[in-house]
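hey m, so remember when u said the tokens were messed up on ur end? i reran from scratch. heres the input so u can diff it against urs
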Amino acid sequence: VRAAPAAQNTKHLETKKMDSNHGNDGRYSIHTSMTVTAEGTLESNAKSQDKKKTFSFHDRYQQLLAFKTKHGHCDVKRNYAVDQSFGRWCDSQRETYRHAKTGRRELSRKKKYFEFPLLEAVGFRFEKQSVPFEKRFQDLLAFRSRYGHCNVPWAHTDDPALGHWCQGQRISYRKFMLGHRKMTLELGNRFRRLKEVGFRLEIGLSSSRGDVQKLHNNLYG
């Protein structure tokens, strides 16, 4: 039986073996030949002539730890500007989790008992958490204070999520106007507050639906 490797800071971790491809000694060792740079990207420690970049789970795990140290959380966006491949990797972990949860895919033993528990332990969230309306509403007010209007572009550079949220409010409004969604007291209050600060809910309503536009005018003038 091979001796277990010596523990070395956070770059080496041992747990029960979950994949037969890693020998038969009952151990699974995390190790990486990559270094996380100050910018948060991965850099190979291999010789310069070895140009092949293959990042293992161990490499990405170390990168995630560095991200958490720098930002205080593990919510890496898919379009993470510093390292887009890292953002896509994080998104693929969430996608694999969703597929397993809905029964579309079965998790491997390694992912189920080793990789995913490690990610969960450091605070990686596999399911997106919806941001409360009040938080986004305050972000909208901050945008208005800075730019003098509430026309947040879809691809707002400073806060892309705010642009997506604004689009979602208009989609929700359009569904109501077209009769595809029932009005609730909460939804009505949201629409009213958005209109009061100058947010244009009606953007996107088809001009060919004169009855819908007329209803909007009767509701909000």
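this time it looks ok to me. Strands lie at 13-16, 27-30, 34-36, 42-44. if urs says something different then somethings off w ur setup not the seq
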